[in-house]
Amino acid sequence: MTGTVLPAATTDACPVETAGSLVAAGRNISLPFRLRVERGDKTVELTFVRILRLLPGKRIVAVCEVGGDECLVKAYLGRSAHRYAGRERRGIGLLQESGVRTATLRWQGRLTDGHGQILAFDYLRDAISLQDRWEHADQREARVDVLTRAMVILGKLHNHGVVQDDIHLANFLLSGGMLYTIDGGHIVRRSSPPLREPASLENLGTFFAQFFPRFDDFIQIVLPAYEAVRGWPSDPVRLRRLARAVFRSREKRKKTYISKAFRDCTRFICNADFRRFEVCERDAYSKDLAKLLDDPDAAMGRGKLLKDGRTSTVALVRLPERSLVIKRYNMKSPWHRIRRAFRRTRAWTSWANACRMEFLGIPSVKPIALIEERFGPLRGRAWFITEYVEGQDALACLRSLKNPNGELEALTRILAGLSESRISHGDLKATNFVMTERGPVILDLDAMREHRSNEAFRRAFQRDLDRFMQNWTDRPELATRFEGLIGHLTP
């Protein structure tokens, strides 16, 4: 959870909280508030002014004021507070032993009610994470620099038998021209120094797996920086082993990413009972959306009908804060209802595939909510709700342009992304792409499938390409240019 800096508050202007009240508040914590902390033989008051991260009922990372000074505080709550605070302290020690710079731990204490632990660090006010650097990098060289900096740190840790188990760019901060490594709670010693090569490659694989597959070519560029720190000579076999480790880790991350989309978590609100299953984007949730979710058919009736078919009905619905597309999957007959009752709904499949596209960095519709009618384990009608995408479909767009070079290349990148991930779409007609200001977006995800078998993928993707090329039979010049661009994608 990210908060905003609040106006300076006197200690009399904000309430005093306890571990119990913060646990009970869950995500609904109001700022500013105070905590009373036993620090050695005296009691101090911390004023929380900005929350940087919140794990409800367990941990708060925040910017605090104490005695007119500013610091970064990690507050651990509940029965496991002492254990998690201990992990953080041990991790900080391992970082320092490895010669890796980290924020200074100023002091530690416990809440006066005895149910929480506090660690106070130097607050790096000007810090920017390598994650932010990566996301705002507009040149290849800038991204290579980000990865190279991380490689040097990981090389130092591995030389001392130490790994970062929760390894991502947000755990590296640039401040004052120096690089800091944070999150000591996930820094552990795996072996006596140095870390052996197989374990090192597994940890590197976990690191590189967080990036979209299209960035995998950076690995061979930045790996020499890591090898130099480790004192290893270059080895092509090592690079292949690392590529396999990246693949294994990415597959594991993808399964976890998609599974979270079907349960209550930081990103999603999930409600399930005997008669209904519902999951919704937490950031999109509002009173208006809640009303829509209670009766999606009524909302569709007030909206603009886009499609009215036997198998599905689609409507555009405008809320005050956003426009949504609701796709209801219908039951054609009692026999159809019986056959579908024991299978995952197509709305469920679309929801999972939308999250899969997000994970792989392939432009697709943004999922907002999923609703299923249920009778215990049996499933009935279902609704898949996405953000409305403004733009022309690819068929109309390309036919209206005289020289659509950029558009052709952008569509080809989506096809290449599907091919690299062994995903077939199932209905790759041009009207299932919307051309937006930011590029094309792929629609209609209910027949999309990720293949384990190379042969099954080859057949399915070839059908996709054949269907895609049928769109341009009346524009032979476009067909010829597409054939040149996608020829290498043919399985």
In words, what does this structure look like?
This protein is α+β, with helices and mostly antiparallel strands and about 500 residues long. It has four domains: about 10-120, Phosphorylase Kinase, domain 1 (2-Layer Sandwich), CATH 3.30.200; about 130-255, Orthogonal Bundle (Transferase(Phosphotransferase), domain 1); about 270-385, Phosphorylase Kinase, domain 1 (2-Layer Sandwich), CATH 3.30.200; about 390-490, Transferase(Phosphotransferase), domain 1. The protein is built from 15 helices and 23 strands. Strands 12-13-17-18-16-15-14 form a seven-stranded antiparallel β-sheet, sandwiched between helices. A six-stranded antiparallel beta barrel has the order 1-2-3-4-6-5. Strands 7-9-10 form a three-stranded antiparallel β-sheet. A hairpin with a 2-residue loop joins strand 3 (about 60-65) and strand 4 (about 70-75). The relative contact order is 0.06.
